């Protein structure tokens, strides 16, 4: 045993020795450093920021001007002060276009210093900055009071050029003081990280776009770009310490070891690892054992990638130091023994990646190091560095096909050679983000010998939650053999086709145990389909909800791409509204269906660590089971894919024209609120029972949204209600319903309610329908408004229930109609009121 270890250790030692002289410094293929608005080049720490006045990659536009800072003294004390002496000001939408030599990951760094100018007050400027693919800054306002603002993004560029757009807000200007577009090593961000809340593995980070929000050197001074091989800045941690008295700074001047394949100076400079914050010496006998916590203010509603950098520079011997790490008070890793993770070595670089979601309503992100509760461990703990990156700053997709050619060059020529984790349809589609990196992309990864070093180190203690995960497919659904599905569908009998979509055909099938299923068979020739197929089989099994269509299994035998879903007896909602001779649904049935689908969407948006945006909400994608229970279907699969740049738009326009969020269309920026918009259109369909676009009608009637909103805004929605239900809708219920639809259809996403709010408002509309039944209770509305705190409570209960995925006790509750809960509350409240009277 001991011998094996010894040999392993020796092998590793030789391995390290072997590679120690091979490490080629990273040379960025693209390296644009620009001093904007300047007439002269500016050199900062041997990096030349080129004047942009005469350079060709500034798109010709009449809308930009240069400005000099007339009070240079205002910046003299700042770092890189000479970058802030000039600015380029944009009075209208303008762009820079940078030729990209090597597609793949890049840093985009933006520097702003808002000085007073006789023509424009930059302090009050407000603007957005975007690339072809992503919105980097939306309605950004620089910090006032002569302070600089610095923004850094990690983006994938899959084009031959990068277009950086500056768009001023109305009555404002945009400006930029300096900027950098610099290639980044492809393997700096790994594809997987541990999800703190669920302890699951987050996959797909390689395709994410990030904004770097905090980068800290613990226990030591600020590290300037010139001391970092990637010109990064590492700030001191002091101001973020919640209680500095329980922390202590330590430093170390001996050697720091990187592990080839797992870390390098590009991970972080040695300076970061040679200092650390540790738990201040504590007297355990008197119970004086404290956690050290750093607290950060972050934007809510996003996931964050948190990278902790460690290097045991305090232990005198192996296995001396054990500690725990927490993020937002949740355990991230416990009983960390850095010396064991580093295969029995000290002062070796280790980092761990975690994904945490910061839900809306909270702006706090805290990172804590605390003593281990392991017996005999002296209470101590350390942290050397910390990076916090906001995930998903993204917009529309990019083409991976167009980038494959240059990838080959990259693989041959790049020192890191790891370009090309190709950026499928980047990021607009949250669902895609969870997709694993497929095998065939492995060829562009670093050579396996390097990976070997990596895995050896990290695998030696997998329980710590390090960044490498080899587990895949652990929670995908049941795998069918093709024979079973041939039998179930009578060998894909055309007579059993119940739907045809971009992906392929959907067949009705019956399994041997007589369970009815819907069998969706993808076209095996479509590469796009393959990506979507994997997205769906990995995403769907994790999403279990009464109001989402369940995936029963899949089949990938013989290159088939088949998905097997529960069969929905009553088909889609649209066919029950118009275009068929199915019996009309009553108003209450329609409301229940709206409530059910809203609940399904609300779950998609909030039920997992990462919001999932459906993107194709329409009445044809809301399916009904034999009891008319609504289930949302077709998520993740409908579009996406490499040729997004072209097909996506036209597919979306064809398939969902009339439902498309105009803001998404304008800005190419997808949020949950786009689903809310589409849902608003569905609500109008439900009330008017007509197609969303009907070119046979008069011009003002063609578009259901325009037409419906005209009547709604006039307060006359009742005039256009489906005549089959007009008689049984209570006016207040209709009014509420109309108001919700109108809010959902607001022009700007920020003005639209969340799906959770839509949900409880629909419950309210249902309640109005029910309570009004008794004419004696005319002031039920007043009662309802008085119990609004209780409604709030229900809605937060609903939220927490929705988040309790997979917990059966909570799932049981989903069968309980929320409207029943409401009526109980309302009754309780009116009883109480009567007593008071
Ligand atoms: C600035 O540097 C660039 C690239 O090094 C060079 O081509 C250009 O002539 C310089 N411009 C000035 C004004 O010195
Ligand atoms: C900025 O200053 C330079 C010389 O310092 C001058 O040539 C240029 O005209 C000034 N630009 C503006 C917009 O004032
Ligand atoms: C620019 O705007 C800021 C904030 O409104 C104000 O404090 C400052 O005085 C303004 N400066 C000028 C020159 O108008
Ligand atoms: C450690 O040093 C840094 C930089 O000098 C400082 O910001 C921080 O407050 C120090 N921490 C403690 C606990 O003294
Ligand atoms: C810890 O506290 C106890 C009680 O105050 C004291 O007797 C002991 O000397 C302290 N130990 C250290 C290491 O400070
Ligand atoms: C450290 O913080 C974690 C998470 O909040 C908590 O569970 C633990 O009890 C704390 N430990 C100490 C010693 O305060
Ligand atoms: C965030 O931190 C601030 C300051 O410590 C605190 O007042 C606030 O309650 C925290 N918010 C949440 C949601 O935890």
UniProtKB/TrEMBL annotation:
Keywords: ATP-binding, Glycoprotein, Kinase, Membrane, Nucleotide-binding, Receptor, Serine/threonine-protein kinase, Signal, Transferase, Transmembrane, Transmembrane helix. Pfam families: Malectin_like (PF12819), PK_Tyr_Ser-Thr (PF07714). GO terms for molecular function: ATP binding; protein serine/threonine kinase activity. InterPro entries: Kinase-like_dom_sf, Malectin-like_Carb-bd_dom, Prot_kinase_dom, Protein_kinase_ATP_BS, Ser-Thr/Tyr_kinase_cat_dom, Ser/Thr_kinase_AS. CDD domains: STKc_IRAK. It is found in: Membrane. It is an enzyme of class 2 (transferase). Residues 492-765 form the Protein kinase domain. ATP binds at residue 520. Residues 1-25 form the signal peptide. It is a single-pass membrane protein. The chain crosses the membrane at residues 408-430. Its EC number is 2.7.11.1. One of its GO terms (cellular component) is membrane. This is Receptor-like protein kinase HERK 1. It comes from Apostasia shenzhenica. The lineage of its organism: Eukaryota, Viridiplantae, Streptophyta, Embryophyta, Tracheophyta.
């Amino acid at each position: 045993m001991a011998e094996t270890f010894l040999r392993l250790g020796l092998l590793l030692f030789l391995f390290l020795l072997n590679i120690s002289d091979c490490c080629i410094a990273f040379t960025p293929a693209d390296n644009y450093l620009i001093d904007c608005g300047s007439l002269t080049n500016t050199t900062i720490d041997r990096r030349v920021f080129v004047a942009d006045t005469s350079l060709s990659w500034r798109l010709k536009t009449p809308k930009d001007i240069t400005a000099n800072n007339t009070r240079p003294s205002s910046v003299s004390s700042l770092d890189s002060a000479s970058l802030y002496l000039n600015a380029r000001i944009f009075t209208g939408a303008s762009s820079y276009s940078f030729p990209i030599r090597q597609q793949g990951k890049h840093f985009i760094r933006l520097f702003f210093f808002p000085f007073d100018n006789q023509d424009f007050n930059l302090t009050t400027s407000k603007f957005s900055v975007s690339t072809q693919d992503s919105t980097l800054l939306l309605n950004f306002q620089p910090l006032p009071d002569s302070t600089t603002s610095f923004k850094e993004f990690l983006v994938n560029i899959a084009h031959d050029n990068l277009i950086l757009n500056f768009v001023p807000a109305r009555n404002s200007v945009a400006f930029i003081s300096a900027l950098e577009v610099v290639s980044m090593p492809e393997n700096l961000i790994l594809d997987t990280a541990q999800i703190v809340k669920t302890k699951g593995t987050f996959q797909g980070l390689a395709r994410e776009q990030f904004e770097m929000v905090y980068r800290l050197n613990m226990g030591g001074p600020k590290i300037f770009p010139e001391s970092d091989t990637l010109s990064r800045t590492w700030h001191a941690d002091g101001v973020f310490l919640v209680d500095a008295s329980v922390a202590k700074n330590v430093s170390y001047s001996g050697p720091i070891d990187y592990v080839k394949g797992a870390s390098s100076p590009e991970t972080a400079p040695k300076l970061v690892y040679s200092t650390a914050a540790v738990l201040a010496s504590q007297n355990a006998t008197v119970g004086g054992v404290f956690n050290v916590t750093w607290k950060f203010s972050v934007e809510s509603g996003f996931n964050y990638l948190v990278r902790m950098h460690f290097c045991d520079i305090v232990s005198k011997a192996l296995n001396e130091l054990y500690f725990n790490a927490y993020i937002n008070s949740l355990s991230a890793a416990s009983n960390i023994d850095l010396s064991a993770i580093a295969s029995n070595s000290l002062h070796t670089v280790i980092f761990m990646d975690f994904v945490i979601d910061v839900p809306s309503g909270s702006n706090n992100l805290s990172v804590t190091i605390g003593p281990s509760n392991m017996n005999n461990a002296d209470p101590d703990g350390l942290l050397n560095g910390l990076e916090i990156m906001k995930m998903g700053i993204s917009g529309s997709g990019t083409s991976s096909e167009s980038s494959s050619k240059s990838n080959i060059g990259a693989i041959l020529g790049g020192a890191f050679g790891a370009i090309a984790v190709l950026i499928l349809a980047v990021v607009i589609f949250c669902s895609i983000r969870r997709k694993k990196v497929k095998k065939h992309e492995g060829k562009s990864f670093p050579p396996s010998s390097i990976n070997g070093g990596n895995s050896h180190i990290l695998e030696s203690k997998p329980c710590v939650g390090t960044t490498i995960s080899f587990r895949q497919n652990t929670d995908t659904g049941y795998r069918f053999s093709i024979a079973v599905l041939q039998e179930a569908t009578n060998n894909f009998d055309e007579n059993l086709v119940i739907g045809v979509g971009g992906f392929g055909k959907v067949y009705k099938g019956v399994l041997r145990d007589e369970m009815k299923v819907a069998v969706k068979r993808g076209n095996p020739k479509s590469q796009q389909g393959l990506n979507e197929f994997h997205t769906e089989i990995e995403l769907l099994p994790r999403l279990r909800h009464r109001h989402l269509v369940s995936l029963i299994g899949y089949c990938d035998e013989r290159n088939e791409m088949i998905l097997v879903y529960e069969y929905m007896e009553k088909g889609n909602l649209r066919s029950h509204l118009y275009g068929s001779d199915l019996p009309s649904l009553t108003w209450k049935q329609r409301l229940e269906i709206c409530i059910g689908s809203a609940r399904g969407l609300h779950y998609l948006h909030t039920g997992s660590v990462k919001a999932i945006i459906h993107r194709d909400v329409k009445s044809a994608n809301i399916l009904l089971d034999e009891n008319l229970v609504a289930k949302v279907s077709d998520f993740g699969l409908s579009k996406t894919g490499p040729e997004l740049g072209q097909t996506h738009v036209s597919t979306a326009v064809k398939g969902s024209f009339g439902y498309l969020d105009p803001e998404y269309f304008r800005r190419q920026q997808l949020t949950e609120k786009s689903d809310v918009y589409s849902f608003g259109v569905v609500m109008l369909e439900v009330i008017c029972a007509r197609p969303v676009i009907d070119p046979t009608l008069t011009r003002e009637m063609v578009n259901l949204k325009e037409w419906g909103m005209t009547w709604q805004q006039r307060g006359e929605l009742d005039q256009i209600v489906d005549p089959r239900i007009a008689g049984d809708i209570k006016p207040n219920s209709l009014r509420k319903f109309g108001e919700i639809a109108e809010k959902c259809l607001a022009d700007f996403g920020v003005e639209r309610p969340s799906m959770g709010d839509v949900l409880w408002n629909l419950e309210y509309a249902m309640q109005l329908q029910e309570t009004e039944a008794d004419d004696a209770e005319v002031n039920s509305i007043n009662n309802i408004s008085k119990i609004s705190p209780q409604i709030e409570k229900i809605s937060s209960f609903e939220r927490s229930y929705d988040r309790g995925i997979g917990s059966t006790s909570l799932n049981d509750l989903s069968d309980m109609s929320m409207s029943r809960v409401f009526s109980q509350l309302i009754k309780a409240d009116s009883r109480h009121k009567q007593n008071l009277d």
